[in-house]
Design goal:
Blueprint (H helix, E strand, L loop, with lengths): L1 E7 L8 H12 L9 H27 L6 H16 L4 E5 L6 H10 L4 E6 L6 H18 L4 E4 L7 H14 L6 E7 L3 H6 L12 H4 L10 H16 L6 E6 L12 H7 L7 E5 L8 H4 L1 H12 L4 E5 L6 H20 L1
Parallel strand pairs: 1-2, 1-3, 3-4, 5-6, 5-7, 7-8
Bound molecules: ligand L6N33NVT and fe (ii) ion (2 copies).
Length: 342
């Protein structure tokens, strides 16, 4: 029997400082997130970051938390429920970090008689810290606990027409009548991660070709390339000009160089260049979360206004919109059918 596991990033179990600390410990000790040798990672995470960040992050989580829990987990569960209504195999969720874990999700499917799973990492773009770590973790769990279970993984879908159409329509519907620019703010990653996922090791970060060229052997797994390609395809679909579009990267952590331009700096400076009315969307996230509801909608708005901006319009993620659920269904069904081919 077949089943579907939707995997998202995960959130702390509550906004208590200790729960946020436990979550950040698991998240940041992932070698695909902070990719230093174990000893240096432990020194940085446990010796520095976990001393102060949990209290600060707990305060931020409190501002977005709902009666049902973390927005990210609540929305992922809503996606599951809606998908379950339109497919005829069991659907469960699993989080890469914290609860409900990937292992718990697989266990729930196995308990319903499932032995072939389509696992959907809910990230449009590939990165070590997104798709790669989800597959790595799921394979570890599968080999250790469920060796008889087969898993088919859904690949990044940033360039799939069905997804681009869905995102373009969703943005179009929510755009204000008057806006000077539409900003696409993606979660950032350290520049180093782009080199690490380049199989040919030839990426020149400053070379615009990396962003603009079609997919080739060097950028096939390049997160930044995929973010720019997402933007390019969406604005083409919307009929929006490049001149009215801004791409930037948010949520930096630590002292390393992250991919540029940075969202916070961009928000402060664009009003002086004439962008007084801004619409902003975050297409690295399929569901709203701390990074969109607090970092962009609250902090980002303040940065924009501080820079002289007048109207800041945040465009929500796809969340549980019906048209997105239809895309999830199609992507899952493609992989469900793959099992027949092996
Ligand atoms: C969407 C893709 C994501 C990438 C790429 C990513 C990389 C990445 N993240 C951190 C550090 C943090 N991220 C945090 C929150 C967070 N990150 C993503 C997604 C991506 N991260 C999401 C969806 C969320 C929100 C989770 C939620 O519960 O709503 C946090 C925790 C919050 C905080 O303390 O600010 C950290 C820390 C790194 C280092 C990294 C790159 C490798
Ligand atoms: Fe993150
Ligand atoms: Fe490159």
């Amino acid at each position: 029997m077949k089943g579907i596991l939707l995997v998202n990033l995960g959130s702390p179990r509550s906004t208590a400082v200790n729960d946020v600390k436990e979550y950040l410990d698991e998240f940041l000790m992932d070698e695909r997130v902070i990719d230093y040798r174990w000893i240096f990672r432990a020194l940085l995470v446990q010796g520095v970051i976990l001393k102060t960040r949990p209290a600060k992050s707990a305060e931020a989580y409190k501002t977005v938390w709902t009666d049902e829990g973390s927005p990210l987990v609540v929305i992922t569960e809503k996606i599951r429920k809606k998908l379950q209504k339109i497919v005829d195999v069991p659907v469960e969720i699993g989080m890469r970090y914290a609860q409900p874990s990937i292992e718990a999700g697989i266990q729930k499917l196995v308990d319903q008689g499932v032995s072939e799973i389509v696992l959907f990492p809910l990230y449009p773009q590939y990165a070590m810290s997104t798709t790669e770590t989800v597959i790595e973790k799921a394979e570890e769990v599968r080999k250790k606990k469920f060796p008889k279970v087969k898993i088919n993984y859904i690949q990044p879908f940033y360039n799939r027409d069905i997804y681009i159409n869905c995102l373009a329509e969703s943005i179009k519907e929510k755009l204000p009548e008057n806006f000077d620019a539409l900003q696409f703010s993606y979660h950032g990653v350290p520049e180093r991660h782009l080199y690490k996922t380049d199989p040919s090791k030839t990426c020149k970060i400053d070379d615009a070709n990396c962003i603009n060229s079609q997919v080739d052997t060097h950028n096939a797994y390049c997160y930044r390339h995929q973010c720019y390609k997402t933007t390019e395809a969406v604005i083409a679909k919307m009929g929006l000009s490049k001149e009215k579009t801004i791409v930037s990267f948010q949520s930096r952590l630590g002292k390393d160089k992250w991919i540029e331009p940075y969202t916070d700096e961009t928000l402060e400076t664009i009003p002086k260049k004439g962008v007084k009315n801004l619409a902003i969307v975050c297409p690295a996230f399929v569901s709203d979360c701390l990074e969109t509801l607090e970092e962009i909608s609250v902090e980002g708005k303040e940065q924009f206004e501080h820079g002289g901006g007048e109207n800041f319009h945040y465009i929500p993620c796809l969340n549980d919109e019906d048209r997105w659920i239809d895309v999830v269904k199609i992507l899952c069904e493609e992989k469900l059918n793959d099992f027949y081919l092996v």
